[in-house]
Design a protein that fits this description.
Number of domains: 3
Strand content: 5-15%
Number of strands: 8
Helix content: 40-55%
Distance between the termini: 103 Å
Number of helices: 15
Radius of gyration: 30 Å
Shape: elongated
CATH class of the largest domain: Mainly Alpha
Oligomer: single chain
Order of helices and strands: EEEEEHHHHHHHHHEEEHHHHHH
Amino acid sequence: MARSIDGQLSRPDLIPLPSVQREILIKDEQVPGLYLRVSKGGARTWTLQKRFGERVTKMKIGDAERMSLMEARLRAIDLMRSIDAGDNPHTKLRAAKAWEMTVADLFERYYKGHVLPQAVSRPEHIYSMYQKHWTPLHNIIMGRLSTHDIQKWVNNLGASSGKATANRQLTNLRACIRWSLKMQIVALDGDPSAAVTRFEEIPREEYVKPGEEFGRLEAALDKRPGDATDAIRLLLFTGQRKSNVYAMKWSEIDWTSECWTVPAKKAKAHKSIRVALTARAIEVLKRREHLAATTDWVFPNEDTACGHVIDVTPIWNEIREEAKMEHITLHTLRHTFGSWLGMVNTNAFIMQRALGHNSSRTTERYTHFGVDRMRASVEEAQKMGTA
């Protein structure tokens, strides 16, 4: 039987656990039908009992650890008004439960309900970045997640991990929230991330300079032969993303046409990429071809769950330190590939295809290197105009 201890409802955590009964119900004196249920195990939840049709419906409307007495009363009143209007209370209840969902709860549903089934590119990277950077948001209830909370998180992330990282994680959070709104998993008054300001990013122009700087890099690579060094060489000589190079399979290589096809399921843009293998890239692959008899992977690693190399950063850090190129990251090798194409006046369309870009706008960052062709065209136009 329910007990009336209204004065205790404002502090559910102080209500003692039941000693004999399976549970106790403490009714609220202000909102008829609202109870605090205290189980023998210690769980404290707000429940509503209300007649719907021919029977009394019992509904859990919130966790007392997350929801205050005032919030429980407002939720109960809203539900009762819906019932009186003839609405199904369970529809409202689902929305109420969604309102209680934390950011961590929502991300797990997003990851399992969208990222994995839809084969979103690099799901393991998305999850690892979530674990690494989203901790300040994990326990925030979606119904209370504000634009201010997200902006503060983005600002702090920009200061600690860099502007680019902060922008990428904001993009991931927006995708998560908008998916949940589209799927009607949460009931929010709009997207709280919509008004958050991103950092302005200055395009990076770091790359390995031809000549002396590349010579230092190659000398450092030559001193450390092995799997990691070969993977680094292919990053530079193919211009492809790290995840694609690490997961390269022998079955993806066409020796006759000297081409490597990155399958659509591995490509960031979900479109297959045909990579023209240069003599330097072929040299690396030929050196490793004996592995094809025993493994599918070009860079196998029995110590990883996936069976192939997943990171060469430790070796790379040693190489770039010796080459006195601390400013060059592994991803910079991809920028180097694009920059070198721009320097020899490569057609923008070919550059886009070679780099596997989905948009020509991404490729435009490298076209400024091809100034010689532009200068020749301008000179020819001026000669015609001033003749």
